[in-house]
Write a structure and sequence with these properties.
With 174 residues, the protein is of the alpha/beta class. The protein has helices at residues 5-18, 34-47, 85-100, 116-120, 146-164; strands at residues 27-31, 53-57, 71-74, 106-111, 126-132, 135-141. Helix 3 links the parallel strand 3 and strand 4. The protein is globular, with a radius of gyration of 17 Å. The relative contact order is 0.15.
């Protein structure tokens, strides 16, 4: 083993002790696929944060939120396994149309698709290349403060970990 078991379990225990479930958060996860929502619920329960996350089966076309400001992190399908190129492009247009209703929000979108900004209908302010699981991914960031960039980088680490574990991202749009 690369990491001794004792060290690994000590680190897991330390991380679990640092989880503060008494904070006020509004984390929501949506996917059109109910099995993805079920898997996300299991992951949240195993992490001990199920009371901090609202998960719901919902199409991206139904996306709305009463808050004026927020941010969305998503890893939409690429079309390589789940959809045709045309279906993916239609989905990206649909995502752009839905996200326009959240005009004060910021979006963090993981996609290898070079055409995403034109299909989404919004130019990327920043592009960060990521490499994991032999897929070249791009994180498209729009107008981030240092605090938001730090949060996005933390989210990317979680996504990378989940993808490498073969579990996929817990927060996706469909």
């Amino acid at each position: 083993n690369l990491i001794p078991k004792r060290c690994w379990y000590d680190a897991v225990d330390e991380a679990q002790e640092m989880v503060d479930t008494n904070i006020e958060l509004d984390i929501q996860g949506y996917d059109i696929d109910g099995s993805v929502i079920k898997a996300a619920r299991i992951n949240a329960q195993q992490a001990g944060v199920e009371n901090l996350i609202h998960l719901q089966q919902r199409d991206v076309a139904q996306l709305s939120h009463p808050k004026k400001y927020g941010f969305i992190i998503t890893n939409p399908p690429y079309g390589e396994r789940l959809m045709t190129v045309r279906e993916v492009e239609d989905l990206y247009r649909k995502i752009g149309k839905s996200f326009k209703r959240l005009d004060k929000w910021q979006f963090y979108i993981l996609t290898p698709n070079e055409r995403f900004p034109s299909l989404f209908g919004r130019r990327a302010d920043k592009i960060k290349k990521l490499n994991f699981n032999e897929l070249e991914e791009k994180l498209r960031l729009a107008g981030l403060s240092a605090e938001e960039l730090s949060a996005a980088n933390s989210a990317v680490k979680v996504l990378k970990h989940e993808v490498n574990r073969g579990k996929g991202a817990a927060l996706r749009t469909g």
